[in-house]
Amino acid sequence: MSVENLKAYIESGVLELYVLGDLSPEEIVQVEEMASRYPEMKNEIAAMEHAIEKYAMQNTVEPSADVELRLFEKLGLNDVEENEVISTQPAYIEEPKIVRLDGSDGKVRTLRYALVACVALLVVSTVSLFITYNKLGDAHDQIASLNLDKQKFAGVVSKLEYENSGLENMAAMADSQEWATIKMAGQAFSPKSKMKVYWNKKDKSVLINYVAMDLPKTDEAHEYQLWALVNGKPVSLGVFGKTDSTDNEAIIKMQTIQQAQAFAVTLEPMGGSVNPTMEKLTVMGGV
Amino acid sequence: MTALKKLTLSEPELVLALQSKDPAVLKTLYSMYSSALYGVISRIITHTELAEDVLQETFVKIWQSAAHYDNAKGRLFTWMMNIARNLSIDKLRSKDFKNSLKNQDIENNVSFVDEQNKVTFNPDVMGVKQLVENLKPDLQSVLDLVYYKGFTHVEAAEKLDLPLGTVKTRIRLAIIELRKSFN
C-alpha cells in the first residue's frame, strides 16, 4: 500500500470505528492485519486508544458499592484478601479456554439453588402434612372416645334419674296414709325374688315400682303378670315387662281392684294369660 | 503499602495476572477501571439498576475471557471498554430493558427522560467539559450518538440523515479533537 493509500485509509475514519468496536469481524481482521504491517497505523490506533481512555478516565461515574460485592460473590471470589500481593510472575500462556459468555452459568446456578429450595420446601411441607394428618387421626380417636364416655354418662344419668324418681315415689307413698304397701315374698319357683305392690285405700288404684322389685330377668317370650286374689279367685291386674327396663317410667299403674286378700306375680307368655300358671308363681304376699 | 502499589499496576502486569486468573487482580482491575467503565455504561443505559447489572456482567466477561485478550492488538482498556459498550448495547436492545421502560411510572419518567438526554461530566475535570462544549455541534452530535448512546455509525448516519462517509469523518474529527487535548 502506498503512502497515499495508507493516509486515505487512515483518514476514512475506519480506525476510529475500530477503536470504538464498531466494525464487522472481517473489517477488524483487516485493520489488525494492516496495523501489524504498518507501524504508522499502529501508532495512530494507540494514540486514539490513549485519548479515549483518558477521556473515559475523566468522565467516570462511581457505581454503588454493592456491585463489587455482587460481582465477587457471583464469581465465587469473595474470599480474596484485601492485602494479598498480586503475583506479577510471568504466567505461562494458557491454551485458550472455551468459556461460556452468555452468563447462563449464573442462571443455571440460581435455578439450581431455587430447585434445592423447592425440594426442601416440599419435604418440609410433606412432613408437616404427615404430622398434621397423624394429629388429626389422634383428634378423631379422642372425639370418638369422648363420645363413648358421653353416652356412658348419659346412660348413667338417665338410670340415676329413673331410680331417683322411683325412690321419690316410694318415699312419698311411705309418708302418705292412703297407700298400703304389700310385700310379696319369693315362692318355690324363684325363692330369692321379692317385690312390693302399692294399693291405694281410697281410689283402689294399684302401683308397682321397678325400683322396689327384685325379679329374675325374663326372656323375649315371657313377661310377668300381676294378680289379685279376690275371695280365692285370681284376677289379672295386667302385665309388666323386664325388670331392668329403663325405657318405662319407674312407676307403673296397674288396674284398680276394689278388694283383694293377696297379690301374686306369675311368669306368663307375652300378653299374659287368662288364668295364672301356678308352676311359675314367682312372688306372693297377703294384704 | 501493597494496597497503593496494587492500584497502580502497569498494564502488562495487570494482563499477566489477569490471564493467570489471579483472583486478587480482579479487585485491582475493578478499583482502577470500574468507574471509568461505569461512566461509559451509564451514559448508554440511564437506568441505574440495569447499568449496574451491565457493569457486573462486564467484569464477569473480562474475567472469563481474559485469555482472549491480545495486547498486540490494542490497549487493555480499549478491550474492556468495548466489552462494556457491547453488553450495554445488547442490554439496550434486550427484553429486560424494554420491560424496565414499561415499568417506569410517569413521575419517574420525567427524570428518566431528562437523564437520558443529559450528558454529565465529572465536575473536577473542567477542561474536558470545555473541550466537548468547544466541539462543533455537528461533531458533538455524532460523538454523542456513537459514544454515549451506543449507536453504530450506520445507525447514527440514519438517525442524522447523513451519508455514512460524513459520519465516519465526523467521528474521526471528534476523536482528533480529543487527542489534541490529551497529547
Automatic annotation (TrEMBL), chain A:
Specify the Anti-sigma K factor RskA C-terminal domain's residue ranges.
125-277
Q: According to the lineage, what is the superkingdom?
A: Bacteria
**Tell me, what's a Pfam family for it?**
RskA_C
Q: What are the TM regions of this chain, as residue ranges? A: 113-133
User: Which keywords does this chain's UniProt record carry?
Assistant: Membrane, Transmembrane, Transmembrane helix
Is Nucleotide-binding tagged as a keyword? no
PANTHER family the UniProt entry points to: ANTI-SIGMA-K FACTOR RSKA (PTHR37461)
Q: Tell me what this protein is called.
A: Anti-sigma K factor RskA C-terminal domain-containing protein
UniProtKB/TrEMBL annotation, chain B:
Can you give the residue ranges of the RNA polymerase sigma-70 region domain?
Answer: 29-96
Q: Where does the record place the RNA polymerase sigma factor 70 region 4 type domain?
A: 129-174
Q: Does the keyword Transcription apply?
A: yes
Which first-to-last residue range defines the signal peptide?
Answer: none
Keyword annotations for this protein? Sigma factor, Transcription, Transcription regulation
InterPro entries attached to this UniProt entry: RNA_pol_sigma-70-like, RNA_pol_sigma-70_dom, RNA_pol_sigma70_r2, RNA_pol_sigma70_r4_t2, RNA_pol_sigma_r2, RNA_pol_sigma_r3/r4-like, WH-like_DNA-bd_sf
Q: Which domain of life is it from?
A: Bacteria
An example Pfam family from this entry, by short name, is Sigma70_r2
The similarity annotation says: Belongs to the sigma-70 factor family. ECF subfamily.
Put simply, this protein is called RNA polymerase sigma factor
